Amino acid sequence: MGKDNGKVVVLDFWASPYAMRTKIALREKGVEFKVQEEDLWNKSELLLKSNPVYKKVPVLIDDNTPISESLVQVHYIDEKWTDVASFLPSDPQARATARFWADFADKTISFEGGKKIWGNKKGEEQEKGKKEFLESLKVLEVVLGDKSYFGGETFGYVDITLVPFYSWFYALEKCGDFSVETECPKIVAWGKRCIERKSVAASLPESEKVYQQVLKLRQIFGVE
Amino acid sequence: MGKDNGKVVVLDFWASPYAMRTKIALREKGVEFKVQEEDLWNKSELLLKSNPVYKKVPVLIDDNTPISESLVQVHYIDEKWTDVASFLPSDPQARATARFWADFADKTISFEGGKKIWGNKKGEEQEKGKKEFLESLKVLEVVLGDKSYFGGETFGYVDITLVPFYSWFYALEKCGDFSVETECPKIVAWGKRCIERKSVAASLPESEKVYQQVLKLRQIFGVE
Asked: Which among A69, A70, B81, B194 counts the fewest CB atoms within 10 Å?
């Protein structure tokens, strides 16, 4: 059963990895929410008014108050709905470790980073994009090691930050002609483990659907 | 009187705005710490070992455990030493607002942003750097409004994030031939207010000293 039914709204775009974070966090906490799908080429007045600084999804609207930036939203969700276990451990040192790696994942495995792969034809620029992406993912592979989740046995903040990009791996692989599983088998096994969770399964689109979207984006950006 | 004397070390560089954040946060909490000044052109083994991902200052070492990234450190300091008031308000909504603006300040008023001004001769690139810098600072000027600090009457997280750059304003003004005070009088008044605090005064270098350092950097980077 959900809480605060009808008061929480996510201004969303289904393929946005950032919006996926917010939906996963809400679902982990069992918070009911409405999704308002945005047309990113014709943004709603509500989106423009709610996020005047960046004008981007996701926006989390709780009780008519908008909050922007996905990681700010994840912290907000964690701190507002405290009846479900926190996404962060309680020990300050362990919290710092989680924040450090979530920040690293956020900076290095990003929409813009992925665009260096799918937004370029085969060639030097795409190779550079693949190299950067895989180098960062390999760092995270080592950090994950043989743990179930980044924090150990508990799905948490780093997982929420990174797992949306798992739904983009297939599109990146198809565009860049490589295999994430070959390069980072533990990350792929972790992604499969995460997607078994209801919160993640309900928030991540099918890989094929993301790939079709990427093909549309490649047309729009004149990549092929 | 300080706490945990001798156990806390900051791997520092005096002109680093990021390291200033960490020192301000520690001083606000009354935590005694040792400063180990780094030569950024010849980094210590301890720095390279403590921050293998970025190899950058500041590193906060507490009880032999290193923590990297200044905003992760500020959160850590806030959550470890809880006997002094938190840098963040208690209300989840207000915390989200603080995190949003600290993140905005962190992304837009940065060493790299400043370098677009001091790292270029007069001309198009420098003008672009000035425009970006002032546009972001004007957004923050409006957010600050007539409040004493970004959070209201209490010096907090956004102030700690932004105020180190106040010590760089003079160098940017001299290199870019403009006046921050003319463009953003409330921000400058806020900076003067912040520097009256012992924590800030002890952590920010003299503006003239920063300017001399910037002149050295301009020589190193061949700007003039």
From this structure: B81
- Tell me if B157 sits within 8 A of B151, measured CB to CB: yes
- How is domain B92-220 classified at the CATH fold level? Glutathione S-transferase Yfyf (Class Pi); Chain A, domain 2 (1.20.1050)
From its phi and psi, is residue A10 left (phi > 0), alpha (psi between -120 and 50) or beta? beta
Domain B8-80 is found in CATH 1.10.10.10: no
Reported as a single tens digit per residue, the pLDDT across A13-70 is 999 999 999 999 999 999 999 999 999 999 999 999 999 999 999 999 999 999 999 9
Chain A closest-CA separation from residue B90 CA (Å): 10
Digit-coded pLDDT (tens) for B116-153: 999 999 999 999 999 999 999 999 999 999 999 999 99
Domain boundaries, chain B: 8-80, 92-220
Helix B207-220 and helix B111-118, axial crossing angle in degrees, nearest 10: 70
A82 CB within 8 Å of a chain B CB: no
Domains B8-80 and B92-220 share a fold: no
Residue pair A60/A76 in contact by the 8 Å Cβ criterion: yes
Nearest CA in chain B to A139: B53
Answer yes or no: are the C-beta atoms of A8 and A31 closer than 8 Å: yes
Distance CA B197, CA B189 (A): 14
